[in-house]
Amino acid sequence: MKSPAKAILFGEHAVVYGYRAISMAINLYSYVNIKESNDITLYLHNLNKSLTINLEELKTINPLKFGDFKYSLMAIKKVYEYLDINNGIFTEISSQIPVSCGLGSSASITLSLIRGISNFFGYSLTDDEIAELGYQVEKEVQGKASRTDTATITYKGTLEIKKNKMKKINNDLLKSCKFLVVFVENRKKGTSEIIKDVAKCKDKDIIFKEIDALIDEFYNIDDKRILGNLMYRNHLLLKKLNISTPKIDKIVEIGNIYGYGAKLTGAGGGGCVLILVDESREKELINRLINENVKIFDCKVVY
Ligand code: MEV
Prior knowledge:
Blueprint: E1 2-10, E2 21-37, E3 40-44, E4 49-53, H1 55-60, H2 70-83, E5 88-95, H3 105-120, H4 127-142, H5 148-155, E6 158-162, E7 165-169, H6 172-175, E8 179-185, H7 191-199, H8 204-219, H9 224-240, H10 246-258, E9 261-265, E10 271-276, H11 282-290, E11 295-299
Parallel strand pairs: 3-5
Antiparallel strand pairs: 1-2, 2-5, 2-6, 3-4, 6-7, 8-10, 8-11, 9-10
């Protein structure tokens, strides 16, 4: 079982205040491989760490006390409770999604587990049930969560999100777009801390309205050059919220010169940049990025 990652095309932070965001499922994946077992064993391939508990322990443990295993254990606990499962599993979890940088790596693993375990035991949960379980896992682990990541990764494609309401959108332009997700640097603050910083920005409402207006423009275009420009304008507005960094700005400028446009994606304070590729200049773009010592992932929207 595999699940994609997500990237926000427009509207991060604005969505926290009830404005729209556009998010997309992208082809970076987490994987789970499940086999029969007497107990519950989780093997985190990327970290080479494993944990075994028995079925009775699963009922009483607090997953939050299990560090790197907390999301996976919470996902297993929730899906076991929901489906009343009483058999053990051995599950290997691996991921190609960079962590803690706005690409939804924990939501992706959570959803791979929920889908993987339910399928393994012969249940076919609906996407709505899966998205809800995924959201419950994120909420219990984080204390507070938005549905952006779990919904985008469950329903795939492109979603408009407003006040936790999701609408799938069918955008032909995005289907033909090639993106690069560039991991620039580790974030120094967590999402909730950055959201608190944004709350202090006195111009935030004007900025969010301008970001929301970009989404109206997005719905009326069919040209990648204009889409790239809208992304760059969204980035400049995020910069006004003080959530960009010099390194992120530098990569955005490269993406803007050698691609159609670029912006930071996610909560900011570091993390990743999303670049819309101009295929006629892709080699130049990649060469420029390689000089910056960043990690580059080729991405498109997955449906
Ligand atoms: C984080 O990826 C994006 C934020 O808008 C928060 C959220 O929507 O959950 C900052």
